[in-house]
Write a structure and sequence with these properties.
Layout lengths: L1 H9 L11 H11 L3 H13 L3 H11 L21
Length: 83
């Protein structure tokens, strides 16, 4: 019975969890819109200076981030369980 109390006490929606509401997103976009021209100018200056971080940022948004791959090699097989 006590296990059920723990689940109820810790389960469900948490305060501040989840995605912000659409109205909050729209407010943030409205606040950032006047800075758009400055942001583009700063990006352009960084690109003109050949600074790598600006070039990387530009291409991450323009072409999308490249898919990350991992090279996993196993040297020896290990049993799932011992007999």
């Amino acid at each position: 019975m006590e296990d059920n109390k723990l689940v109820k006490a810790h389960g469900g929606k948490r305060v501040g969890a989840g995605r912000k509401g659409k109205s909050d997103e729209l407010k943030m976009i409205e606040r950032l819109s006047p800075l758009e021209v400055k942001a583009y100018k700063a990006l352009e200056q960084g690109l003109n200076n050949g600074e790598f971080k600006y070039v990387q940022l530009f291409y991450n948004y323009y072409a999308g981030k490249p898919k990350e791959t991992r090279d996993v090699t196993l040297t020896q097989e290990q049993p799932l369980f011992e007999l």
